[in-house]
Fold each of these.
Amino acid sequence: MTTTYPGYLRKPHYYETDQMGIIHHSNYIRWFEEARVDVLEHLGLSYHAIENAGIIIPVLAVDCQYKNMIRYGDQVKILVSITQYTGTRLDFSYEIRDIATDQLMTTGASKHCFLSKDSGRLLSLKKTHPAFHQIFVDFSESL
Amino acid sequence: MTTTYPGYLRKPHYYETDQMGIIHHSNYIRWFEEARVDVLEHLGLSYHAIENAGIIIPVLAVDCQYKNMIRYGDQVKILVSITQYTGTRLDFSYEIRDIATDQLMTTGASKHCFLSKDSGRLLSLKKTHPAFHQIFVDFSESL
Amino acid sequence: MTTTYPGYLRKPHYYETDQMGIIHHSNYIRWFEEARVDVLEHLGLSYHAIENAGIIIPVLAVDCQYKNMIRYGDQVKILVSITQYTGTRLDFSYEIRDIATDQLMTTGASKHCFLSKDSGRLLSLKKTHPAFHQIFVDFSESL
Amino acid sequence: MTTTYPGYLRKPHYYETDQMGIIHHSNYIRWFEEARVDVLEHLGLSYHAIENAGIIIPVLAVDCQYKNMIRYGDQVKILVSITQYTGTRLDFSYEIRDIATDQLMTTGASKHCFLSKDSGRLLSLKKTHPAFHQIFVDFSESL
């Protein structure tokens, strides 16, 4: 089931353009977040479910490589993979592809950990939230 | 003293441009907030002082009139006035002027009230925070 | 046909929240733009169609009234009306409603004119682009 | 002279916070751009000077590591280094430090090339703009 994640569809907004006539490079970091939220919802892990479980998933690092310029009027699809899941760490990678041509426009990655909302301490999901843990394991293995 | 508020200086950022080659109109609403924070600090009412006093100052309404396009490379000054202060309501108006030419580029306004951070209820500063109240009265009258 | 415009659906993004735990008020101006683009596409006036016709539709003024706070996790619908169309001027109004409760969250408006992309001069669509003119007239009357 | 670049001072804006109560991670990519523009101006290479010379400096890649959370009310300094300059490629690294404590908050990097504004082709500054080339060489060596 989880293997069928179709990617996150996105139309650039006019306010995301810059005077070079392209989407400003900072916006892709925001699109990665949108796609990450979308894939977690697809897995049954909505923001509220995560929050209600007392978990925060902060961003430790991001990177982004701009291969082709994306313009207003283009439509893109953001594919998300889990590249590492250890129970305490969670890493994603992203590919942005043009929907019309399937051309690879942008690649990127983000690194995360799990914190307790109450204590601010690092969580090991395997111990503290085994149901969530299993979802990440299953999705990682399905890819 | 408070009459000498010199205005808030701002250089547009590249990421604030759009593909029309101008500063995107949504950013002025953010600049108004920056200028509002700056004038409050000038009055001795830093965000932390306001927060520590248990006060939240939400935005009830904004408006903005775009008279001349502002471009990357321009430098502007944002002048802030208090147009109404009643003890329970606080209204600002804004003028954005080009520093080189003094040309009026943009006008705007914002309306605010005071809420208790704890209860979420409307505050009358005159009753609950008389020192803050006096600062607003003095600044309003100095204009 | 044009009467059936269903409104523009929008889920707030996490990066649109602020530390008050609500959607920052500047983002609604961007949502109005998204909804405006969407309704124009619904009318057959995509950004590219407008651009290819040599027309620019700048923003002359915006306003926004914040009636209820919108939070991350809410889903909203933005309804768009044309409140004035004269052939040389185009005014929109907006209502943001919560999808779950139909509660009115935000109202707003924007004012626009038509400029020639080449000359930068004001256009009267009735004269220069009668097919576009008719679309605006029909939509205005359908409301 | 160029060795004395003092860093780019920045106060976070309220609209840059998110509901976790910190500066949203996407904004640091924008701050890096601000700091990059600032150091180029410090070197006599204002955006207009670069643009008038027919040069575009696109972003090929960015990365950012979030070491400590930055909050509204903090003041930070962004230090910029050129880590590679080849005449055709230009790489920067960034350190964001808290001004009060000198604590390292964030690190990052960006990679760039030079394009001709007219032809869109890659430029070798050493050949096409030797004065600009020398400025980059001098600044790189001064670090």
Amino acid sequence: MKINEARIRARLEAITNLAVTEEGGMMRLALTDADKAARDLLKGWMKEAGMDVKGGDLGTMLGILPGSDQDALPIGIGSHMDTQPNGGKYDGLFGVMAGLEAVCTLADNGIITKSPLTVINWTNEEGARFVPPMLASGTVAGNFEVEWVYNRKDKDGLTYVDELKRIGYMGSMSNRFIKAKAYIEPHIEQGPVLDLEGYQVGIVTGALGITGLDVTIKGQANHAGTTPMGNRKDALVTAAEAMLELRKKTIEYGDPAVITMGIISASPASKNIIPGEVYFSIDMRHDNDTALTALEQDAIKIIKNICAQNGMDSLIERYWRADPVHFDERTVTAIETAVNRLNLNAKKITSGAGHDAVFISSIIPTGMLFVPSIKGMSHCPQEETGWEDIVTGVEVLAETIVELDK
Amino acid sequence: MKINEARIRARLEAITNLAVTEEGGMMRLALTDADKAARDLLKGWMKEAGMDVKGGDLGTMLGILPGSDQDALPIGIGSHMDTQPNGGKYDGLFGVMAGLEAVCTLADNGIITKSPLTVINWTNEEGARFVPPMLASGTVAGNFEVEWVYNRKDKDGLTYVDELKRIGYMGSMSNRFIKAKAYIEPHIEQGPVLDLEGYQVGIVTGALGITGLDVTIKGQANHAGTTPMGNRKDALVTAAEAMLELRKKTIEYGDPAVITMGIISASPASKNIIPGEVYFSIDMRHDNDTALTALEQDAIKIIKNICAQNGMDSLIERYWRADPVHFDERTVTAIETAVNRLNLNAKKITSGAGHDAVFISSIIPTGMLFVPSIKGMSHCPQEETGWEDIVTGVEVLAETIVELDK
């Protein structure tokens, strides 16, 4: 099906021009004025496409185009419009706009599906303003309580519910997207694999499981000049040893195992005091549940052993655990069929990132399709996807909807 | 000479009870109300000892007891009364109070020296409130300009000069301690050597030189889940490699070479983003100028090489350089003679820390004596020196004054 390139381009640009940082990044945190402005535009385009626009109790927007079969369950397509601070252009936004564009394309081609088509904009996927991420889809999937979500506060102490009401997008619990034939989330890869290996599309078979650990290593703070090297209990040097061993062990597990130490701090944080305590975070991911558990156990063993060798204590606390997810086979096959019909160069891939689709997959048959991220850049102003790949992604989506509607 | 233990103990306790943290640490930052309270007590005791109390233009306090020889140059004894935040009891304070006590002991024993005796309390030795450390002694020694010092600001934006005036200790430039027969600074070791090796006193022959470097390693921030291990430019892992190599190289240099990475931070500091940039500080010390320079060059080479191997850039900036200092031979010998006369178990030692004496040694024949720090604890509430060692330190000082006065 021919995509109306000018239309989707103009719409993407209308939103990516809304709240831009000096460095060219997006600044559309959930439930801010910039988010509201993007929502208002989306609402207008949904209505223009003949959709009935509804809102969920977590602020999720749903644009519903009726199908020809009154009894058919809906097919949902969507993602999120909120961004990281100074985030990328198409992270989330691509999925929502691809959904809208696919629905418009089907209409342009005179195709009326049996299933109603629901285009969805989930609230607070990034978790950048209200922690943790994916609050709306997570609640719909039964992982969070709505009252708990409502009371989440941003760094200024503003609550989710007050901000949701303030921007005028409080909806109703009865509009939650909980029963459907399928849910498809198109997304940028956010990694380098498709771009580096020359694929046009990624057929996502599932998502990596995640284990998050908070690690504190306890040595002994002391004077930088008066403590001989042999008398030190330098928590930072021990942390460095541990981090290198953790990396080595993770590489031994092979792809898709990954490990990231994203935050580190030394205390008392003085240039002339030996660090007595060091904190660092660990984020470990794997597509295999057993392997992920083994990797976590290995990591704890490595830290404990290195601390013991250096006469130090450690405190290791798990702050997060998400099991690996395997998407619905029939839905994944529908995407594959669409890709083959369009004769595209596609790769089956596991998502390394969390997505609304990961939560939704526990209640609805779910699939995802990826478009390439140039050099794998993500959560930064340099995030980019080629224009041809965006159009290709919408084509695959439109074909997938036809396939799922069969 | 017999020391009046009850007197020095009561005076030390009067000051260490002034501003105590919950953890039992000292909170007597330079030119605060707590500093003023300590100064007021010291001023009273100086007057009680028959001293003329004067003030320098940097806030330094001088208690002067006249000698019998009108033409004799003074002998100075002192240290500082300011502390680190949550600092130790005797760091600095011991030197000032030992000076006062030695002067009182000589008087108790009917000894009148030819030289006037000047007990000194230098301002802002720690550099904890106004950066850098040793602002008063550094200015007296010609390393800083007084106007520049006056305009140093604390973290709340308050200036040195305003705070000095506020607590009522602004003095005159004519009172600077710049010409003397000798300056002796008694101090706690702040390191473990005397305590571990069972010495009662350290005869300090000089001070380690210091090179300080600010290091930034520039990798590439990216998504923690979607970037395979082989496609990462993780600045924190590279920093960890560099830190371990730096430690290894420093140990190769042997004692007294030391290296400390006291501060570290990763950017963007998110648990699920690979660190794109890491900053850490390096503090390197050695008693040999050539070796210190070689160690610095080796350190820079190590960082550059490891960054190059990992395809990263680095930025290395020197924030500090202090040459190694060798104290005056005659003054050091006077301390040694006093130690031998008292039949004490003493060790010649190089100071790893900076002290007012290090600056003053460039204009006045200078020496230092150390008392043991239990387990080498310093700049923390656990800092401790045994009561016997404190008394012994005062005895050595009193004998040293007699020796220097010959």
